[in-house]
Fold this protein.
Amino acid sequence: MLRFAPSPTGDMHIGNLRVAIFNYIVAKQRGERFIVRIEDTDKERNIEGKDREILEILQLFGLHADDVYYQSHNLTVHQHMAIKLLEARKAFACFCTPEELEAEREAAKASKKAYRYSGKCEVLSDAEVLANEKPFTVRLKKPESAIEFNDLIKGNQSFAPDDIDSFVIMRADKTATYNFACAIDDMLHDISLVIRGEDHVSNTPKQIHIRNQLGYDKEIAYAHLPIILNTEGKKMSKRDDASSVKWLIEEGFLPEAIANYLILLGNKTPQEVFTMEEAIAWFDLANLSKAAAKFDIDKLRFLNREHMKRMDSKELSRAFGFADAAIGELVKCYLEEGSTVKEIKPKIEAIFSAKPTDHEWKEQMENLRNALKEAPLFETFDELKSYLMKTTGLKGKNFFKPLRLLLTGAEHGPELSQLYPHLKSYLLEIIK
Ligand code: GLU
């Protein structure tokens, strides 16, 4: 089973969407289930409604989950497991206050040493623990030897016991920390492979250690994806608009193009433009680059045009808020003029809006409008053109400029002969 485990703490980042896509693809390839687990145990960071938003985005991208779980529903299981570890003396109660720990952290920083837990509470006797009524966290004792794993992208990884440290698994409010909840849930869901961002590499030995201590010996494979960089070569953060999936959608990028781009990024693929279905046929984690990939919005714009070109006209029409396939065809004529729904939509709307009446071509436009009202429905633009030239007596610039304005609401744009087949059934509406 594969899983996507987002925290409902902010707008979905493209890095997270990429993680979701890869997990989905591998699940399909292996014929395993794909689940979504909303990691909502950090109440202070949760944002109301972000879980729904994440699920809607997954839906929009066609990443259908076989099941959706909320991590907080597993609270009692996490608590039971913590008690089990305490009883086995693999974990211990820690009464250090946040202030004390902060002071120790500051001291480590001042002496330029990496902070490690002092081990103070590990040596408390049972009597001392029972007599203490102060709030406490639960820490898992650090491992005795290094924890190693083979990352499918980054290769062999080894973490020394001191780097894993005796870390907190239950907060003072008796909820599980991220590492504890995640390690247990991956075990309970029988996850076979975890694909996630590289920012989690140092969490992995902790999660493996937790499961080892719980006696779970089935191996979970890991693949940590390199981060995505912005154009300045820095990690793409909330400050980069394009890092937000919602922003990209609002800008008029199609889910098909965004997914294509995220699969292409830092990858060796047999073609550049493809659908998710096609990617399922050849996607291989082994082809992903170990190095961070740079986000390139121009490439995404190119892919967006390519996907619009290939899209079923009726579907494309719907993406623009229309219903008729002819509008989808019309949009395809405008791909030189813009790359996104947001850029092209005003041009399509201008065609159907009232045309300027105080224009320098006002008279000619009126003349053409009257002629068009009386005109039969011509199959081709050439036929219409000859008819209109004859009835209005206009020619050259005096004919084409006002006709373009009348039909498209713009002075420039695609060839009228190219647009006409898709406009002809709306002519009366357009010139009204
Ligand atoms: N909830 C974590 C996050 O959103 C992901 C954890 C994971 O994939 O293991 O960063």
Q: What stands out?
A: The chain has 20 helices and twelve strands. The pocket of glutamic acid is lined by residues 5-7, 39, 182, 196, 200 (CB under 6 Å). The two ends are 59 Å apart (CA to CA). The domain at 241-309 is CATH 1.10.1160.10 (Glutamyl-tRNA Synthetase; domain 2).
